[in-house]
Amino acid sequence: MTATTSGNLLTDHPELYEERFPDPERLAARWTEDTLARHAAGPRVLDVGCGTGRDAAWLHHRAGREVTGIDTSQAMLTHAATHNPGPAYHLADMREFDLGATFDAIACLDSALLYCHTNEDLTAFLARCRAHLAPGGLLVAEMRNGAFFLGNTELLDGPRTNTFAWRGTTYTSHTTLWIDHGAQLLRRRRIWTADDGCPQEEQRSAWRLLFPQELRYFLTTAGFEVLALHDGPGPRTEPPWSEGEAPHGTTSSDRLHLIARLMPHPTNGDTPA
Questions:
Q1: Is residue 18 pLDDT above 50, yes or no?
Q2: How many Å apart are CA 214 and CA 235, to the nearest integer?
Q3: Domain 10-149+209-262 is of which CATH architecture?
Q4: Where does the pLDDT of residue 272 fall: very low under 50, low under 70, confident under 90, or very high at 90 and above?
Q5: For the chain, where do the domains classified as CATH 3.40.50.150 start and end?
Q6: CATH 2.20.130 spans which residues of the chain?
Q7: Rg of the chain over CA atoms, in angstroms?
């Protein structure tokens, strides 16, 4: 391990990522399939930010869907092709992807949508979704909720320390979160140490803080109808979603879940409502 701010220990080492964030019951994939089935989505699914491919592969093999995954990490995609084969995997940016294919649904899980840091980023991503979705296609996303941080400092009272062991080495992370109000970003600084004698590693990342009404505006402007926007249950809520459980709740807790449908393309030069 080297001292750097350019890489990411977990995404550069996919097996380590899965050890740190296990999902043995594939809750994220099962929640996604339940959502797709509830809204009668067709079989072709694009997983944006597919990571190690474990959700994409579950949807492909267990749910019988035709899945394609994209990610910006070559290490993640190489791991996915080897350990979670079946879906087609592509190295691509969520703001610029052009796959020459049409999908019935696009899934964007675990706050991947929030890597659109600017209004221009989000607009570009939604335009790419619109270009790749069949009429009536779904956009399904789950992410951190910007509204949660209005007066709530629960996640900001850090730093937080987490330790876990992998292949004989104990890794410890010290994580600090803070809000960049001007940029509307939740920023993270994480210091990794390991008991194998390697130097510590510092990493920085950020997520856009989107508020529910703001998200509705961007989606409507891009030609989507918001079918549901709720805070639970989901694969990363407490308590987590369970089989057959319908969405409920407000939009005030830490997680936000979105289901939107692509409206018919406008005609005669009309602007999407």
A1: yes
A2: 23
A3: 3-Layer(aba) Sandwich (3.40)
A4: very low
A5: 10-149+209-262
A6: 160-207
A7: 19
Q: Which residue has the tokens 């949660």?
A: 148
**Confidence check: pLDDT of 264 > 50:** yes
Instruction: List all residues 6 or more positions away from 123 whose beta carbon is below 8 Å from its beta carbon.
Output: 218, 222
What are 66-125's pLDDT values in tens digits? 999 999 999 999 999 999 999 999 999 999 999 999 999 999 999 999 999 999 999 999
Phi, psi of 258 (to 5 degrees): -125, 135
Sheet holding 169-180, edge to edge: 160-166, 169-180, 185-194, 201-208
Is the entire prediction scored with pTM above 0.85?
A: yes
Gap between the Cα atoms of 69 and 103, Å rounded: 12
The answer to whether 52 and 74 are in contact (CB under 8 A) is no
Can the peptide bond before residue 239 be classed as cis, meaning omega within 30 degrees of 0?
yes
- Topology (CATH level 3) of domain 160-207: S-adenosyl-L-methionine-dependent methyltransferases (2.20.130)
User: In this structure, what are the phi and psi dihedrals at residue 215, rounded to the nearest 5 degrees?
Assistant: -65, -40
Cβ atoms of 135 and 266 closer than 8 Å: no
Six-digit token string for 208: 């856009």
Cα→Cα distances 247→107, 186, 235, Å: 17, 26, 12
| Of the candidate ranges 49-53, 195-199, 240-244, 267-271, the one whose mean pLDDT is the lowest | 267-271
